[in-house]
Design a protein that fits this description.
The complex is a heterodimer of chains A (about 240) and B (about 250). In chain A, β2 and β3 (about 185-190) form a beta hairpin. Chain A has a 3-stranded antiparallel β-sheet with strand order 1-3-2, covered by helices on one side. By secondary structure, chain A is mostly helical. Chain A has 9 helices and 3 strands. Chain A has one domain: Gap junction channel protein cysteine-rich domain (de novo design (two linked rop proteins), Up-down Bundle), CATH 1.20.1440. Chain A starts with a helix and ends with a helix. Mean pLDDT of chain A is about 85; it is low at about 1-5. In chain A, about 25% of the residues are buried. The longest helix of chain A has about 35 residues, at about 195-230. Chain A has helices at about 1-20, 25-50, 65-75, 80-90, 95-115, 120-130, 140-165, 195-230, 230-235, and strands at about 60, 175, 185-190. Chain A is elongated and about 85 Å long. In chain A, α2 (about 25-50) runs antiparallel to α8 and α5 (about 95-115) packs antiparallel against α7 (about 140-165). Chain B is mainly α. Chain B has one domain: Gap junction channel protein cysteine-rich domain (de novo design (two linked rop proteins)), CATH 1.20.1440.80. In chain B, about 65% of the residues lie in helices and about 5% in strands. Chain B has 9 helices and 3 strands, in the order ααβαααααββαα. Chain B has a 3-stranded antiparallel β-sheet, with helices on one face. The model of chain B is unreliable at about 1-15 (pLDDT under 50). Classes of the chains: A mainly alpha (about 240), B mainly alpha (about 250).
Chain lengths: ~240, ~250
């Protein structure tokens, strides 16, 4: 995991920054918050807090297999993996926008090639086509709004999943377990519970901030479309 | 004692701090001279030292924390009681939070460039060379950008001081003790627990706090410099007005 994650987070970043050109300012702020306060904190700090979660999970018994079974019962999916999945899912709707922009560019390029097949300034026009920034209107507006809605759904979904799986955002110090092969009810101790609680609350907070940014961006887009389609509303 | 793999392999955090550096140092072009010194101090004496040295000192903080008991779980619980959050994580969060106000300045500069581009296009000068010139031109720290810059400096100072305070609250005194006494459940009675590498940790804690203090001083100096520059510009511009003349007369009477 460590080697691939060092290769994949920067790759994801380059993909998203490319799609970001067509984002609103709130979208650009969202991308910075995502990468600095979530991906960076995850990789630089949180992964080392959870690094020894299984090796340091100790139960008050010598029975072989009891620790494994109890760990598996209380941690079906580790926080770190949930956050990685959340970040990957939350970033992908932006690729919808990138795909739509690529499709539009391809279509316009073909039209351009058909219209001025023998014109001289063709290469320059193709370059400007690639570099231009499309206004967020029409089908692009709908694609963008859909991507925002999907982002919100994924964020909320993952936060809810974390809350349900771990019964809240607090990590207990002690859990009691009586799965087979544990001989009876044993005490099991979780490593670094306070530090894990602090980071869970931090990641939940930044997730909420990202959700607020997405809602604000959606409201902004709706208002922009409204004022564009009904200009007489603002003229009064 | 089972061999635990290192919690964080080396190439990964360096790569991410390196991409962080790329993002933050882009702001450098629009900083004052003191701002550039601050950025260098931040990256060389704080981030580099954190990644290259401090992380290996704290690497075995949990595995090397041993209590004078064989009661399972006592080690974990006592460690958690005395170290709610590790120094390394606090420093990483501090460095990330302290660097981000610089992005406010970067966003403002990008916004200004966008506005200038629009003005150029409206006035008919949509020559690609002119538009390129807007991108590479260095913004003067005046007007709204001055305010954004000063606010970002104030936020930096507030974050630094807050983290130093949080540090002092969690770990009163900056010295790392060798021995802690612990009696949380399930420890059978008061047990002695020994912290690993306390002296080395004290040395690095003092070092990081000293550099943090230097950074605060640099930020304060930059605020004073910007205020001084703005004041002198105002006095110079208001030289003809009565208010300016009155201020100058009052100052010269000292």
């Amino acid at each position: 995991m460590p080697l691939t994650s060092s290769m994949s987070w920067p790759a994801l970043y380059t993909q998203l920054v490319g799609a970001n050109r067509h984002a609103t300012s709130l979208g650009k702020i969202w991308l910075s918050v995502l990468f600095i306060f979530r991906v960076m904190v995850l990789v630089v700090a949180a992964e080392s807090v959870w690094g020894d979660e299984q090796s340091d999970f100790t139960c008050n018994t010598l029975q072989p297999g009891c620790e494994n079974v109890c760990y598996d019962q209380f941690f079906p999916v580790s926080h770190i993996r949930l956050w990685c999945l959340q970040l990957v899912f939350v970033s992908t709707p932006t690729l919808l926008v990138a795909m739509y922009v690529a499709y539009r560019n391809h279509r316009d390029k073909r039209k351009l090639l058909q219209v001025c097949a023998f014109a001289k300034g063709q290469d320059e026009e193709l370059e400007t086509l690639k570099k231009r920034r499309l206004p967020i209107a029409g089908a692009l507006w709908w694609t963008y709004a859909c991507s925002l809605v999907f982002r919100l759904l994924f964020e909320a979904g993952f936060m809810y999943a974390l809350y349900v799986v771990y019964d809240g955002f607090q990590m207990p110090r002690l859990v009691q377990c009586d799965q087979w092969p544990c001989p009876n009810l044993v005490d099991c101790f979780i490593s670094r519970p306070t530090e894990k609680t602090i980071f869970t609350v931090f990641m939940a907070t930044t997730s909420s901030i990202c959700m607020v940014l997405n809602v604000a961006e959606l409201v902004y887009l709706v208002i922009k479309a409204f004022t564009r389609d009904f200009p007489w509303v603002t003229q009064n | 004692m089972p061999l635990t793999p290192p919690a964080e392999p080396d190439p990964e955090p360096k790569m991410n701090w390196a991409s962080f550096y790329a993002v933050i140092s882009g702001v450098n072009r629009h900083s004052t001279g003191i701002g550039r010194i601050w950025l260098s101090v931040l990256f060389i004496f704080r981030i580099l030292v954190l990644v290259v040295a401090a992380e290996s000192v704290w690497g075995d903080e949990k595995s090397g924390f041993t209590c004078n008991t064989q009661q399972p779980g006592c080690n974990s619980v006592c460690y958690d009681h005395f170290f709610p959050i590790s120094h390394i994580r606090l420093w990483a969060l501090q460095l990330i939070l302290v660097s981000t106000p610089a992005l406010l300045v970067a966003m403002h500069v990008a916004h200004r460039r966008h506005v200038d581009k629009r003005l150029y296009k409206l006035s008919g000068r949509s020559n690609p060379k002119d538009l390129e010139q807007i991108k590479t031109q260095k913004m003067k720290i005046t007007g709204a950008l001055w305010w954004t810059y000063v606010i970002s400096l104030l936020f930096r100072i507030i974050f630094e001081v807050t983290f130093m305070y949080v540090f002092y609250m969690i770990y009163p005194g900056y010295k790392m003790i060798r021995l802690v006494k612990c009696d949380s459940y399930p420890c059978p009675n008061t047990v002695d627990c020994f912290v690993s590498r306390p002296t080395e940790k004290t040395v690095f804690t003092v070092f990081m706090l000293a550099v943090s203090g230097v950074c605060i001083l640099l930020n304060i100096a930059e605020v004073v410099f910007l205020l001084g520059k703005a004041c002198s510009k105002h006095l110079h511009n208001a030289g003809d007005s009565t208010m300016g003349a009155w201020i100058q007369q009052k100052l010269s009477s000292f």
